[in-house]
UniProtKB/TrEMBL annotation:
Protein's UniProt name: Oxidoreductase
Pfam families noted in UniProt: GFO_IDH_MocA (PF01408), GFO_IDH_MocA_C3 (PF22725)
Superkingdom of this protein's organism: Eukaryota
Family: Belongs to the Gfo/Idh/MocA family.
Gfo/Idh/MocA-like oxidoreductase N-terminal domain residues: 6-125
Positions of the GFO/IDH/MocA-like oxidoreductase domain: 139-259
Length: 360
């Protein structure tokens, strides 16, 4: 029996909606049937410019998309400050929810979104795309292997890119009324998620923002970092920035091995992605080289990670529609933990870089 095709509506014409719209088209169990903007003309132009399926309905409001009876699920790429309003409305109208990250202004606001999703029985997932690449699962196999990797002791992550002057002045990610988290929400979200991923989503005991964050004149973070501490002695650090050269690194250090990846958010190419591992390495006799050297692993994929995200989300929605499944709660739980750490970093900065306890 063929899999149910999930019909998507898109709220807004954000730049990232071009990428995810393409991915909905590529996913074998999804399609686009509606897009909404502040004008029907803009929505129609966006659909045409991005090759959306013929017959995609263009609406002049987000409400019209939510009221479309054919729409099963919505992708919401709106500014973070608008997430709670439209995500809750979508859930109340029984639309399954693929929500762009960062998910909310704070965890209390996110809890309202999840409450609405649970009450309506709809699936929630955030748009952290790299989680769905097959490389991610393969890397997890290595860091979970106590014989090769041992026990995790430290993680270091970075996501930075050098934004141009127009971005730094006009992009929604530098506007306090639209995306008040700035680089912490846009890039730091990925770093925090990768650290939690490496730690099997165990929350740290405390978070301390690193000194020297860069804020714009409106008080939005352009660059920052933090250290995370667990009671068993594990540590992690991350750096995120709109002001530094493009970097997307993870280093996970175990008692017996090390994992490194240099393009974890967006792979260097769509069709394959690599990472390197080293296990029980040491120096040669004269300390002029390594024994054993790190080994590179390449993981191929027939679909880009964004389409795999849509495919997984749509499979969950399809199972619910078929009447045999409940919404998968691991996704909102992971999102909430990411938001908790993000909130703690902001609070530590506000408190003059004091440690902030993370309470789940």
């Amino acid at each position: 029996m063929s899999e149910t095709i999930i019909k998507f509506g898109i709220l807004g014409c954000a730049e990232i909606a071009r990428k995810v719209g393409r991915s909905i088209i590529l996913a074998p169990n999804a399609t686009i049937v509606a897009v909404g903007s502040r004008s029907a003309e803009k929505a129609a132009r966006f659909a045409a410019d991005n090759g959306f399926p013929a017959g995609t309905r263009a609406y002049g409001s987000y409400d019209a998309v939510l009221d479309d009876p054919e729409v099963d699920a919505v992708y919401v790429p709106l500014p973070t400050s608008l997430h709670a309003k439209w995500a809750i409305q979508a859930a109340r109208k029984k639309k399954h929810l693929l929500l762009e990250k960062p998910v909310a202004v704070d965890v209390a606001e996110f809890d309202g979104i999840v409450e609405a999703c649970v009450a309506s029985g709809v699936q929630f997932m955030d748009g952290t795309m790299w989680m769905h690449h097959p490389r991610t699962a393969t890397m997890k196999e290595f860091v979970s292997d106590e014989r090769a990797f041992g026990k995790l002791r430290a993680m270091h992550t970075c996501f930075a890119f050098a934004a141009d002057p127009d971005f730094l002045e006009n992009d929604i990610r530098v506007k306090p009324d639209l995306d008040s988290h700035g680089a912490l929400g846009d890039a730091g979200w990925y770093c925090i998620r990768s650290i939690l991923w490496g730690n099997d989503y165990e929350l740290p005991k405390s978070v301390t923002a690193l000194r020297g964050p860069v804020l714009n004149k409106a008080g939005v973070i352009l660059s920052c970092g933090a250290s995370l501490y667990w009671e068993d002695g594990k540590v992690a650090t991350f750096h995120c920035s709109f002001l530094s050269h493009l970097t997307m690194d993870i280093t996970a250090i175990g008692t017996k091995g090390t994992l490194q990846v240099h393009d974890f958010v967006v792979p260097f190419q769509e069709s394959e992605a690599s990472f390197s591992v080293a296990s029980e390495s040491g120096f040669n006799e004269l300390v002029t080289g390594w024994v054993t050297k790190p080994a590179e692993h390449i993981v191929s994929t027939s679909l880009p990670q964004e389409a795999l995200m849509v495919k997984e989300f749509s499979s969950l929605v399809g199972a619910i529609k078929a009447g045999g499944s409940q919404p998968e709660m691991k996704w909102p739980i992971i999102s909430r933990k990411t938001q908790l750490v993000l909130d703690a970093v902001k609070l530590s900065i506000k408190r003059g870089f004091e440690p902030v306890e993370v309470v789940g």
